[in-house]
Amino acid sequence: MPDLPYDIIVLIVRFLAVGKWLIRYPVARYSTINHLWNEAIEREWTFKEILVRSSAINSITIARLGRVLQRDGGRRRKYVRHIIFTPESVNRLMSAKTRSANERTADDVVFSRDIAELWGILADWSPESKFKLSISLHGRGRANWPDSNGFLNYIGDSLPLLSNVHSFETGLHVRIWPPSVVQFLNSLPAVKTADIEIGDVCASRWARESNVTEIDEVLATSIRQIPPGCTNVQLNLGHSPHGRPGVSDAFLCAGLTALSPQLRKLYLTGSAVTPAVLDAVASMPWPHLQEVKFDFDAVRKVTGRADAAFVNALYVATASVVRSMPALLELMLCSSCILKEGNAPDLNVKRDEKTNKWKVEWGVSRAPFRDLDDKVTEAWGIKKPADKIQWRRDEEQPEDETPSWYAEELLPWKY
Fold it and tell me: Please, which residues have CB within 8 angstroms of residue 274's CB and are 6 or more apart in sequence?
């Protein structure tokens, strides 16, 4: 085994590093076989993903990150693919107690100090050390997240530019004030992918106590300031603009117009998109856009049933988006809520890259969606009335689960 080729050693280490094997065969014990095994383990396991915290709890601190990866001329930096930073200050946001102005300032000072220290260390790394940077909160789900008014705000000096970060992510519930998130993004000139969670702003106590226009301005301004180098953008906007509180259609559209003309992927999740937003997207100058995903909420607040007219209007507007984007390969429209009497169907449109033919598929749980309108089939160019669309039950689904139904049609389009 010591004489195996390096490529084979790497494959073995990757296999052993999978969770279920890691318990039975701890990877670290193989690092003493020889230097090739040690290098493979450092590259594929030890330094591939690093969890960094302000204080050392089952992880390393920011200062220790700098020391460890500076040894041996910093050769291990090239092994790093993902750094996940969890701010210490976020622990105090877990309290439902309303923080005083002094407490908020103190937390912001600590948070800003940690961010500045982390950025300062990463700025010394070679631009060739490409990795993903996440600011995330681990081990706490939405179900037990308190109704807090707290957010972390960066109040420090200008941050150094990090040319080695190609992807930036803020995880669920980290609760960073959106303008601060954008400030971080603008210090990452090489970033191509931005996965931003700003939904907690809309879901917070602050949103319910604040003027709706203020929410609109905070979120829309932040979207407009996403750097033009970001070609893959995912925004979790929290509550729907359709149902308040949340960024309104007008402000959301204004924010989207500033996204890069080179945009290739756009996800708007957690937000109930409306026909007005889809119409705005269809008019955007995004000739390279390949993948789109939107969430929508079609529930009538009074009856609790799907608003069929609203759903059909969405489907019609979605057809315009697909027709207007020459590079598009897939569009997904996902219902963001569960209804007792059946859901509004998810919609998925895909283009076969070899034949350039399109296929549209609707998927729904509990029962077929019988309210599909002829305007939808006309918009998609389907040569049959909506009531002739054939719904099929998913036969691969276990019988003890809620039944799923789908309908699909080939479209007469080609690019």
Answer: 241, 242, 249, 296, 314
